[in-house]
Design a protein that fits this description.
mainly beta, 704 residues, 6-stranded mixed sheet, 2 domains, 35 strands, globular
């Protein structure tokens, strides 16, 4: 006998402005006996978060707009259910009518796309389509005098869509907005991140809006964004059994092993999308006005509204006074997919994320008192702390003051001018993985690996260019993305950024790839949206490399100089090969012009990595470097900005342990730190003792 399940409506909101939450009474959820009629109990749960340093914002934001952007520079992105139709403007036209068909002859039309008036726009995201399908479109221009003949037939193609599909729909608050193309493009880029990350063969329908009010007309006030979702209370054993059956990754295995033997609540309240991801019958149930129900019209899993009174910027890099619209959009998509905590709405039934809330190893914390952290190994590894500030969402992350060293998508309180994206290794990606979504390319289980390395330094000419080296270890080829960043650094307050970086990738003494302007790279279209440089003058090379040693040289076009950033990303987690050694040589000066090396250690099983970090100076003389840094000092900083180790002269503290690695520095005045580090982001800062300057090398070795 089929058991019919009660489902609720959940509302959550995301704001960059700190607001108190009004207290409200919350009634408990009903269980429904087999064969009983469905009872709908709409329940709104709201969360807000804030700019911790910028609470006193003006109520009028027009002066903070992103400014006009050429339509030709708007990113064009396809997803599994959309493509971006573009056409050339016609002089004197006041609007355009759009036809879309699967036949070049237009013998039939895609629903809703026959003679569609799109206004005076030269582009439109076409939605509600089939994955991996070719479509044809044409337009007609019109004005008061009449309508033109059909344009030439153009072609659009949806992405292959082998896994998760997010069917994005846009209501009139977006399609009639003057910035409609920018808004649609931004949302499409956000959607593509999730579709590329997860392989679940389900379709999630989300309606996107841009308004000062919620879907039902409720004012958003100063909340930056808002989402409404359908939530189903699933019996504990049903949910746990489905979660175990759905496990595919190392994250899943560790997380499931930490689940309790006895129920923590009668039900687990999960979103409709999350339920379908683990094989449950939890259909969409929202109408466009936010009402909950079933049948025709109740077609959405979630409704996301961006507050049109907020100083949103729809392109990146984001100016210092603006909020990143894509980050807010990803935040709300996370909520529609199932992230959140029961603490926001009261009641006794837990949300999926609550099952991984700990105060210390072996001790759960399901309350808003004390501290809580997200962990998938029974509290032993603190992946990230949960927010406990009642003015924000208890399902979001604890947020440091602005500017945040790690402005995660789900931080409870955001900061203007900062951006981030969901990724497989981000706390959001890990969370979605363990509550039931399957990573498209699960990272291998086992030991930790370096997945991202970067170094910022002053780029000059000759011996003073920035040189990044890395080693691919293993027996199989590995795909990597190498980037040279310059102009974008200005958005983070870096003075004198390199205006036009050139990237030259070498194998031994041979140049194997050269790039100046990333969009000119043959594989630029395959670079994930969240890793595309923010400025067209920046460089990137996406390539597959055999095991070996490689060098990335960053110089300024036409001999220019400035501060640059060289980065290497591991793109192929399925490969058994790993990045095991990184090094960057550059000119170390003082203040903002010291050398800053960053790296990310990742481990699907949460294991730590034994790393040796070195700062080399005098030894460079044997390689013909005459202006080497005579006495380098090394500082290791964690993702929270806390110094966890410092060394000036490697023999001072860890001499025996460093010698035992076989990689001790050759000069006593050089520095080294041997550390076992948990998964996360770290920074190695190299400066000269007593303010000295010169060329230095910062290195990170992953030890076996």
């Amino acid at each position: 006998m089929e058991q019919r399940i009660l489902f609720l409506k959940l509302r959550v909101a995301f704001s960059f402005v700190a607001l108190p939450l009004a207290a409200s009474a919350v009634t408990g959820m009903q269980t429904v006996a087999p064969g009983a009629s469905i009872v709908y109990r709409p329940q709104r749960w709201e969360h807000v978060s804030g700019r911790e340093e910028e609470v006193q914002l003006p109520l009028i934001y027009q002066s903070r707009s992103a400014g006009k952007i050429s339509q030709s520079s708007i990113p064009v992105m396809s997803t599994g259910s959309t493509f971006f139709a573009r056409w050339t403007s016609v002089s004197a036209a006041t609007g355009y009518r759009l036809d879309v068909s699967q036949q070049k002859s237009f013998s039939s039309y895609v629903d809703g796309y026959r003679d569609l008036d799109v206004g005076n726009m030269t582009g439109r995201v076409v939605t509600g389509l089939s994955a991996g399908t070719k479509y044809y479109y044409r337009v007609r221009a019109y004005n008061a005098a009449g309508t033109s003949a059909d344009s030439q037939v153009m072609v659009g193609m949806t992405a292959s869509g082998a896994g998760l599909i997010i069917n994005a729909a846009f209501d009139s608050t977006i399609t009639t907005n003057p910035n409609s193309m920018l808004i649609q493009s931004m949302i499409t880029q956000a959607v593509s991140i999730f579709e590329n990350l997860f392989s679940d063969p389900i379709t999630v329908s989300i309606l996107f809006r841009y308004s000062t009010s919620d879907a039902d007309g409720s004012p958003l006030g100063r909340a930056v964004s808002d989402s409404i979702s359908v939530v189903y209370p699933i019996p504990w054993n049903t949910y746990i059994g489905a979660l175990h059956a759905d496990a595919t990754s190392g994250n899943d295995a560790r997380a499931n092993a930490s689940l309790p033997a006895t129920a923590l609540s009668t039900n687990v309240s999960l979103s409709g999308a999350n339920g379908r991801a683990i094989g449950l019958d939890t259909p969409p149930g929202l109408a466009a006005n936010g009402n909950v129900g079933s049948g025709p019209g109740f077609i959405y899993d979630g409704i996301v509204t961006l507050n049109s009174s907020d100083p949103f910027q729809f392109t990146r890099p984001v100016n210092s006074g603006n909020d990143d619209a894509q980050r807010s959009t990803e935040h709300e998509i996370d909520e529609a997919l199932g992230l959140g905590s029961h603490l926001n709405g009261g009641g006794s039934d837990l949300r999926p994320m609550d099952l991984f809330s700990w105060s210390s190893p072996g001790t759960r914390n399901l309350t808003s008192s004390g501290t809580r952290h997200f962990s998938i190994d029974s509290g032993n590894t603190d992946i990230i702390d949960f927010n406990q500030d009642p003015s924000g969402d208890f399902g979001d992350w604890l947020s440091p003051p602005c500017p945040q060293p790690e402005p995660h998508v789900q931080n409870a309180f955001g900061c203007a001018g900062q951006s981030s994206d969901v990724s497989a290794g981000s706390p959001e990606g890990i969370s979605l993985d363990v509550i039931g979504y399957n990573l498209a390319t699960p990272a291998p289980t086992g030991s930790a690996s370096l997945v991202n390395i970067s170094t910022r330094g002053l780029v000059q000419t000759g011996d003073n260019v920035l040189i990044g080296g890395f080693v691919v270890s293993g027996t199989t080829a590995k795909q990597v993305l190498v980037r040279a960043i310059g102009p974008t650094l200005a958005n983070f307050g870096v003075p004198d950024p390199l205006q036009d970086p050139v990237l030259d990738l070498h194998n031994a003494n041979t140049s194997i790839a050269l790039n100046d302007d990333w969009q000119m790279d043959p594989n630029s279209g395959k670079i994930p949206t969240n890793l595309r440089p923010g400025d067209s003058r920046e460089s990137a090379i996406l390539t597959t490399l055999q095991p070996g040693s490689y060098t990335a040289i960053v110089s300024g076009k036409n001999g220019t100089s400035g501060v640059g950033l060289v980065e290497v990303y591991s793109m192929d987690n399925a490969s058994s090969s790993q990045l095991t050694n990184i090094s960057t040589r550059g000119l170390v000066q003082t203040g903002d012009f010291v050398m800053i090396g960053g790296f990310v250690s990742s481990a699907p099983d949460g294991s730590s990595a034994q790393l040796l970090i070195r700062a080399i100076g005098p030894s460079l003389a044997q390689f013909g470097i005459t202006n080497m840094l005579a006495d380098p000092a090394l500082r290791l900083i964690d993702g929270n900005g806390v110094t966890i180790a410092f060394d000036d002269n490697w023999r001072d503290t860890q001499e025996a342990a460093i010698q035992a690695t076989g990689n001790a520095p050759a000069s006593d005045s050089e520095s080294a730190i041997l550390a076992r580090l948990s998964p996360g982001s770290y920074t190695a800062l190299v400066s000269g003792a007593n303010g000295s300057t010169g060329v230095a090398l910062v290195e990170v070795f992953k030890l076996r």
